[in-house]
Write a structure and sequence with these properties.
This is L-sorbosone dehydrogenase. By secondary structure, this protein is mostly beta strands. Helices cover 5% and strands 37% of the residues. Strands 18, 19, 20, 21 and 22 form a five-stranded antiparallel beta sheet that branches. A four-stranded antiparallel beta sheet has the order 4-5-6-7, with no helix packed on it. Strands 8-9-10-11 form a four-stranded antiparallel beta sheet, with no helix packed on it. The radius of gyration is 19 Å and the shape is globular.
Protein backbone atom coordinates (compact mmCIF):
# COMPACT_ATOMS: atom_id res chain seq x y z
CA UNK A 1 0.00 0.00 0.00
CA UNK A 2 1.37 3.42 -0.97
CA UNK A 3 1.69 6.02 1.79
CA UNK A 4 1.77 9.14 -0.32
CA UNK A 5 0.54 12.65 -1.00
CA UNK A 6 1.08 15.47 -3.46
CA UNK A 7 4.71 16.48 -4.11
CA UNK A 8 3.57 20.11 -3.60
CA UNK A 9 4.71 21.34 -7.00
CA UNK A 10 1.40 22.84 -8.11
CA UNK A 11 1.21 26.34 -9.56
CA UNK A 12 0.68 28.74 -6.64
CA UNK A 13 -2.33 30.93 -7.35
CA UNK A 14 -4.99 32.42 -5.09
CA UNK A 15 -7.38 29.71 -6.29
CA UNK A 16 -4.94 26.88 -5.64
CA UNK A 17 -4.16 28.20 -2.16
CA UNK A 18 -7.87 28.30 -1.29
CA UNK A 19 -8.33 24.78 -2.64
CA UNK A 20 -5.34 23.58 -0.64
CA UNK A 21 -6.75 25.09 2.54
CA UNK A 22 -10.18 23.52 2.02
CA UNK A 23 -8.75 20.10 1.20
CA UNK A 24 -6.44 20.36 4.17
CA UNK A 25 -9.48 20.84 6.40
CA UNK A 26 -10.78 17.55 4.98
CA UNK A 27 -7.58 15.78 6.00
CA UNK A 28 -5.76 15.89 2.67
CA UNK A 29 -2.91 18.26 3.49
CA UNK A 30 -0.27 16.10 5.18
CA UNK A 31 3.26 15.84 3.79
CA UNK A 32 3.95 12.80 1.61
CA UNK A 33 5.67 9.90 3.47
CA UNK A 34 6.97 8.68 0.06
CA UNK A 35 6.96 4.99 0.85
CA UNK A 36 5.16 1.69 0.31
CA UNK A 37 4.00 -0.32 3.31
CA UNK A 38 3.65 -4.11 3.22
CA UNK A 39 0.63 -5.47 5.11
CA UNK A 40 0.23 -9.24 5.51
CA UNK A 41 -2.38 -11.46 7.11
CA UNK A 42 -0.29 -14.58 7.67
CA UNK A 43 -2.94 -16.35 9.75
CA UNK A 44 -5.78 -15.79 7.29
CA UNK A 45 -8.14 -14.40 9.93
CA UNK A 46 -8.77 -11.09 8.15
CA UNK A 47 -6.47 -8.99 10.36
CA UNK A 48 -2.98 -7.75 9.47
CA UNK A 49 -0.26 -9.24 11.67
CA UNK A 50 2.82 -8.17 9.67
CA UNK A 51 3.54 -4.53 8.81
CA UNK A 52 6.85 -3.40 7.34
CA UNK A 53 8.23 -0.49 5.33
CA UNK A 54 8.57 -2.27 2.00
CA UNK A 55 10.04 0.56 -0.11
CA UNK A 56 11.22 3.97 1.00
CA UNK A 57 12.61 7.21 -0.43
CA UNK A 58 10.16 7.35 -3.33
CA UNK A 59 8.55 10.44 -4.90
CA UNK A 60 4.80 10.59 -4.28
CA UNK A 61 4.25 6.96 -5.33
CA UNK A 62 0.76 5.80 -6.28
CA UNK A 63 0.35 3.00 -8.82
CA UNK A 64 1.97 -0.43 -8.50
CA UNK A 65 2.01 -3.51 -10.72
CA UNK A 66 3.70 -6.87 -10.10
CA UNK A 67 4.67 -8.82 -13.22
CA UNK A 68 6.60 -11.99 -12.40
CA UNK A 69 9.54 -10.92 -10.26
CA UNK A 70 9.35 -7.28 -11.36
CA UNK A 71 7.54 -4.71 -9.24
CA UNK A 72 6.71 -1.51 -11.12
CA UNK A 73 6.06 1.65 -9.11
CA UNK A 74 4.67 4.89 -10.54
CA UNK A 75 6.22 7.90 -8.84
CA UNK A 76 4.83 11.32 -9.69
CA UNK A 77 7.64 11.78 -12.22
CA UNK A 78 8.65 8.32 -13.45
CA UNK A 79 8.05 4.58 -13.48
CA UNK A 80 10.66 2.54 -11.60
CA UNK A 81 11.22 -1.23 -11.65
CA UNK A 82 12.34 -3.20 -8.59
CA UNK A 83 13.29 -6.85 -8.22
CA UNK A 84 10.85 -8.78 -6.02
CA UNK A 85 10.67 -12.40 -4.87
CA UNK A 86 7.75 -14.09 -3.17
CA UNK A 87 8.03 -13.66 0.58
CA UNK A 88 10.16 -10.50 0.52
CA UNK A 89 9.25 -8.11 3.32
CA UNK A 90 11.54 -5.27 2.25
CA UNK A 91 13.31 -4.08 -0.88
CA UNK A 92 16.62 -2.33 -0.29
CA UNK A 93 18.25 -2.62 -3.72
CA UNK A 94 17.94 0.45 -5.97
CA UNK A 95 15.30 0.43 -8.64
CA UNK A 96 15.79 0.95 -12.36
CA UNK A 97 14.07 3.85 -14.08
CA UNK A 98 11.88 2.56 -16.89
CA UNK A 99 10.49 5.82 -18.27
CA UNK A 100 9.95 9.45 -17.31
CA UNK A 101 6.41 10.75 -16.75
CA UNK A 102 5.13 14.34 -17.03
CA UNK A 103 6.03 16.11 -13.79
CA UNK A 104 7.04 19.64 -12.85
CA UNK A 105 3.70 21.21 -11.99
CA UNK A 106 1.49 18.46 -10.57
CA UNK A 107 -2.06 19.67 -10.02
CA UNK A 108 -3.12 16.03 -10.53
CA UNK A 109 -0.10 14.06 -9.40
CA UNK A 110 -1.37 10.48 -9.03
CA UNK A 111 -0.08 8.08 -11.68
CA UNK A 112 -1.80 4.69 -11.66
CA UNK A 113 -0.64 1.44 -13.28
CA UNK A 114 -2.33 -1.69 -14.61
CA UNK A 115 -0.55 -4.58 -16.32
CA UNK A 116 -2.02 -6.10 -19.46
CA UNK A 117 -3.22 -9.71 -19.00
CA UNK A 118 -0.16 -11.11 -20.77
CA UNK A 119 2.27 -8.89 -18.85
CA UNK A 120 3.67 -7.23 -21.97
CA UNK A 121 2.33 -3.73 -21.35
CA UNK A 122 1.51 -1.28 -18.59
CA UNK A 123 -1.40 1.11 -18.82
CA UNK A 124 -0.54 4.43 -17.12
CA UNK A 125 -2.94 7.17 -16.00
CA UNK A 126 -1.69 10.76 -16.17
CA UNK A 127 -3.91 13.60 -14.92
CA UNK A 128 -4.01 17.17 -16.19
CA UNK A 129 -1.95 19.98 -14.73
CA UNK A 130 -5.01 22.15 -14.11
CA UNK A 131 -8.78 22.40 -14.03
CA UNK A 132 -9.34 23.46 -17.66
CA UNK A 133 -5.92 24.32 -19.11
CA UNK A 134 -5.68 27.32 -16.78
CA UNK A 135 -1.91 27.53 -17.21
CA UNK A 136 -1.87 27.05 -20.98
CA UNK A 137 -1.73 23.92 -23.10
CA UNK A 138 2.06 23.95 -23.15
CA UNK A 139 2.23 22.55 -19.60
CA UNK A 140 -0.43 19.96 -20.48
CA UNK A 141 1.83 18.21 -22.96
CA UNK A 142 1.61 14.46 -22.38
CA UNK A 143 -1.09 14.84 -19.73
CA UNK A 144 -4.84 14.18 -19.29
CA UNK A 145 -4.62 10.76 -20.83
CA UNK A 146 -3.92 7.05 -20.49
CA UNK A 147 -0.63 5.88 -21.95
CA UNK A 148 0.48 2.37 -22.90
CA UNK A 149 4.03 1.33 -22.03
CA UNK A 150 5.65 -1.46 -24.07
CA UNK A 151 7.86 -3.22 -21.53
CA UNK A 152 10.02 -4.83 -24.21
CA UNK A 153 11.03 -1.51 -25.77
CA UNK A 154 10.30 1.06 -23.06
CA UNK A 155 8.19 3.04 -25.54
CA UNK A 156 5.33 5.06 -24.04
CA UNK A 157 2.49 5.93 -26.41
CA UNK A 158 -0.95 7.57 -25.97
CA UNK A 159 -3.80 5.06 -25.59
CA UNK A 160 -6.69 7.51 -24.96
CA UNK A 161 -6.68 11.29 -24.49
CA UNK A 162 -8.92 14.10 -23.23
CA UNK A 163 -9.36 12.47 -19.80
CA UNK A 164 -9.02 15.23 -17.20
CA UNK A 165 -7.90 13.12 -14.24
CA UNK A 166 -8.04 9.36 -14.86
CA UNK A 167 -7.39 7.20 -11.81
CA UNK A 168 -8.52 3.63 -11.14
CA UNK A 169 -8.05 1.05 -13.90
CA UNK A 170 -9.48 -2.46 -14.22
CA UNK A 171 -10.35 -5.06 -16.84
CA UNK A 172 -14.02 -6.08 -17.04
CA UNK A 173 -13.91 -9.88 -16.55
CA UNK A 174 -16.52 -10.90 -19.15
CA UNK A 175 -15.54 -8.65 -22.06
CA UNK A 176 -11.88 -8.05 -21.20
CA UNK A 177 -12.40 -4.32 -21.82
CA UNK A 178 -10.24 -1.76 -20.01
CA UNK A 179 -12.27 0.50 -17.69
CA UNK A 180 -11.23 3.72 -15.97
CA UNK A 181 -12.74 6.17 -13.49
CA UNK A 182 -12.22 9.86 -14.29
CA UNK A 183 -12.51 13.03 -12.18
CA UNK A 184 -14.10 15.78 -14.26
CA UNK A 185 -13.75 19.57 -14.09
CA UNK A 186 -14.76 22.12 -11.44
CA UNK A 187 -16.20 25.63 -11.12
CA UNK A 188 -19.33 25.38 -13.28
CA UNK A 189 -21.72 24.51 -10.48
CA UNK A 190 -22.36 21.87 -7.86
CA UNK A 191 -23.99 19.49 -10.34
CA UNK A 192 -21.53 19.79 -13.22
CA UNK A 193 -19.54 17.97 -14.40
CA UNK A 194 -20.18 14.39 -13.23
CA UNK A 195 -17.22 12.13 -12.66
CA UNK A 196 -17.58 8.96 -14.69
CA UNK A 197 -16.58 5.39 -15.37
CA UNK A 198 -16.08 4.29 -18.95
CA UNK A 199 -14.70 1.54 -21.10
CA UNK A 200 -11.61 2.99 -22.75
CA UNK A 201 -11.56 2.99 -26.53
CA UNK A 202 -8.04 2.93 -27.94
CA UNK A 203 -7.29 6.16 -29.80
CA UNK A 204 -10.40 7.90 -28.48
CA UNK A 205 -10.59 11.54 -27.35
CA UNK A 206 -12.86 12.24 -24.35
CA UNK A 207 -13.16 16.01 -24.56
CA UNK A 208 -10.89 17.64 -21.99
CA UNK A 209 -10.40 20.58 -21.86
CA UNK A 210 -12.56 21.70 -24.78
CA UNK A 211 -15.77 19.83 -23.94
CA UNK A 212 -17.30 17.50 -21.39
CA UNK A 213 -19.55 14.47 -21.64
CA UNK A 214 -19.25 14.41 -25.38
CA UNK A 215 -19.87 17.66 -27.23
CA UNK A 216 -20.85 19.97 -24.32
CA UNK A 217 -18.48 22.87 -25.01
CA UNK A 218 -16.59 24.49 -22.13
CA UNK A 219 -16.54 28.17 -23.08
CA UNK A 220 -13.78 28.96 -20.56
CA UNK A 221 -11.13 27.36 -22.75
CA UNK A 222 -9.32 29.52 -25.29
CA UNK A 223 -8.69 28.97 -28.11
CA UNK A 224 -11.63 26.69 -28.85
CA UNK A 225 -11.13 23.47 -30.84
CA UNK A 226 -14.40 22.54 -32.57
CA UNK A 227 -12.54 19.92 -34.60
CA UNK A 228 -11.65 18.03 -31.42
CA UNK A 229 -15.06 18.59 -29.82
CA UNK A 230 -16.62 16.87 -32.82
CA UNK A 231 -14.54 13.77 -32.02
CA UNK A 232 -15.27 13.67 -28.29
CA UNK A 233 -16.58 10.31 -27.04
CA UNK A 234 -19.46 10.21 -24.56
CA UNK A 235 -18.42 8.21 -21.45
CA UNK A 236 -20.48 5.23 -20.34
CA UNK A 237 -21.76 6.03 -16.84
CA UNK A 238 -21.88 9.05 -14.51
CA UNK A 239 -21.03 8.56 -10.82
CA UNK A 240 -21.90 12.04 -9.54
CA UNK A 241 -20.43 15.51 -9.75
CA UNK A 242 -17.31 16.27 -7.70
CA UNK A 243 -17.37 12.85 -5.97
CA UNK A 244 -13.61 12.50 -6.60
CA UNK A 245 -14.06 8.84 -7.50
CA UNK A 246 -10.59 7.28 -7.46
CA UNK A 247 -10.43 3.51 -6.97
CA UNK A 248 -12.33 0.78 -8.83
CA UNK A 249 -12.54 -3.01 -8.55
CA UNK A 250 -14.76 -5.44 -10.43
CA UNK A 251 -16.70 -7.65 -8.06
CA UNK A 252 -16.78 -11.05 -9.76
CA UNK A 253 -14.43 -12.57 -7.16
CA UNK A 254 -16.11 -10.90 -4.15
CA UNK A 255 -17.22 -14.21 -2.63
CA UNK A 256 -17.41 -12.74 0.88
CA UNK A 257 -20.11 -10.28 -0.21
CA UNK A 258 -23.77 -10.82 -1.17
CA UNK A 259 -24.46 -12.52 -4.50
CA UNK A 260 -26.32 -9.39 -5.64
CA UNK A 261 -22.96 -7.57 -5.65
CA UNK A 262 -21.06 -10.17 -7.67
CA UNK A 263 -21.59 -8.79 -11.18
CA UNK A 264 -20.52 -5.17 -11.21
CA UNK A 265 -17.99 -2.56 -10.21
CA UNK A 266 -17.07 -1.12 -6.81
CA UNK A 267 -16.10 2.57 -6.88
CA UNK A 268 -14.31 4.45 -4.07
CA UNK A 269 -15.51 8.05 -3.84
CA UNK A 270 -12.94 10.18 -2.03
CA UNK A 271 -15.43 13.04 -1.63
CA UNK A 272 -15.93 16.61 -2.80
CA UNK A 273 -14.09 19.68 -1.53
CA UNK A 274 -16.01 22.39 -3.39
CA UNK A 275 -19.65 21.27 -3.50
CA UNK A 276 -22.73 22.00 -1.41
CA UNK A 277 -24.05 19.65 -0.26
CA UNK A 278 -20.96 17.46 -0.19
CA UNK A 279 -20.90 14.40 -2.42
CA UNK A 280 -19.02 11.12 -2.32
CA UNK A 281 -17.31 10.01 0.91
CA UNK A 282 -18.43 6.41 0.33
CA UNK A 283 -17.97 3.23 -1.67
CA UNK A 284 -20.66 2.42 -4.22
CA UNK A 285 -21.53 -0.61 -6.35
CA UNK A 286 -22.53 -0.24 -10.02
CA UNK A 287 -24.36 -3.32 -11.37
CA UNK A 288 -23.27 -4.61 -14.80
CA UNK A 289 -24.91 -6.81 -17.44
CA UNK A 290 -23.28 -7.94 -20.69
CA UNK A 291 -20.15 -5.95 -19.86
CA UNK A 292 -21.96 -2.62 -19.36
CA UNK A 293 -23.47 -0.69 -16.40
CA UNK A 294 -27.08 -1.76 -15.93
CA UNK A 295 -28.76 0.05 -13.07
CA UNK A 296 -28.52 2.68 -10.39
CA UNK A 297 -25.52 2.74 -8.02
CA UNK A 298 -25.90 1.15 -4.58
CA UNK A 299 -24.19 2.37 -1.41
CA UNK A 300 -21.81 -0.26 -0.02
CA UNK A 301 -19.79 1.56 2.65
CA UNK A 302 -20.87 4.87 4.19
CA UNK A 303 -20.54 6.80 7.46
CA UNK A 304 -17.35 8.68 6.60
CA UNK A 305 -19.17 12.04 6.67
CA UNK A 306 -21.37 13.22 9.53
CA UNK A 307 -24.99 14.06 8.69
CA UNK A 308 -24.37 17.78 9.27
CA UNK A 309 -21.25 17.58 7.05
CA UNK A 310 -19.20 19.19 9.81
CA UNK A 311 -16.79 16.30 10.32
CA UNK A 312 -15.02 13.90 7.98
CA UNK A 313 -14.06 10.58 9.56
CA UNK A 314 -12.56 9.05 6.44
CA UNK A 315 -12.11 9.25 2.67
CA UNK A 316 -12.05 6.04 0.58
CA UNK A 317 -9.28 5.86 -2.01
CA UNK A 318 -8.04 2.46 -3.15
CA UNK A 319 -9.98 -0.77 -3.62
CA UNK A 320 -8.92 -4.39 -3.94
CA UNK A 321 -10.27 -7.87 -3.28
CA UNK A 322 -8.28 -10.12 -0.96
CA UNK A 323 -7.73 -13.83 -1.59
CA UNK A 324 -10.77 -14.76 0.48
CA UNK A 325 -13.08 -12.57 -1.62
CA UNK A 326 -13.49 -9.68 0.85
CA UNK A 327 -13.36 -6.06 -0.29
CA UNK A 328 -10.42 -3.98 0.98
CA UNK A 329 -10.85 -0.20 1.17
CA UNK A 330 -7.91 2.15 1.79
CA UNK A 331 -8.96 5.26 3.75
CA UNK A 332 -6.38 8.07 3.67
CA UNK A 333 -7.98 10.26 6.36
CA UNK A 334 -8.83 7.56 8.88
CA UNK A 335 -5.46 5.95 8.04
CA UNK A 336 -7.24 2.60 7.98
CA UNK A 337 -7.66 -0.29 5.56
CA UNK A 338 -11.22 -1.55 5.94
CA UNK A 339 -12.11 -5.18 5.18
CA UNK A 340 -15.71 -5.45 4.03
CA UNK A 341 -17.66 -8.72 4.18
CA UNK A 342 -21.35 -9.50 4.27
CA UNK A 343 -23.96 -12.20 4.22
CA UNK A 344 -26.68 -12.91 1.70
CA UNK A 345 -30.03 -11.60 2.96
Amino acid sequence: MAESNSPKTDVKTVKSRIAGFVMGKAGAGDASPNRIILLRDTSGNGTVDTRTVFLDHLYSPFGMALIGNDLYVANANEIVRFSYHDGDTQIKTPGTKVVDLPAGYNHHWTKNLLASPDGSFLYVTIGSNSNVADNGMEVEEGRARIDKLDLSTGKLTPYATGLRNPNGLAFEPDSGALWVVVNERDEIGSDLVPDYITAVKEGAFYGWPYSYYGQHVDSRVSPQRPDLVAQAVVPDYAVGAHTASIGIAFSHDATQLPDAWRHGLFVAQHGSWNRRPKSGYKVIYVPFADGQPAGMPIDVLTGFLTSDEAHVHGRPVGLALDRSGALLVADDVGNVVWRVTGQNP
